[in-house]
Amino acid sequence: MIKSLHEAGIKSEWAYTAGFASIGLSFLAWTISRKAEDAGVDRADRWGIFVGHWAPTFFGVGNALRSYEK
Prior knowledge:
Order of helices and strands: HHHH
Radius of gyration: 15 Å
Distance between the termini: 17 Å
Number of domains: 1
Keywords: Membrane, Transmembrane, Transmembrane helix
Number of helices: 4
């Protein structure tokens, strides 16, 4: 999979950027869910955690892509 991403032109910097963006998106999802829904803090926490789990995946993909770029 990583080789295919590398051959498709995906760069490690893009994966790192997506990781940092997902951290911000996690906070944004938590904030919006907390204010817009009447479900309470528990649901907002779940949204924030769900989106927050994307960041380590993007960082891992970035590390793997970096090894192909060397």
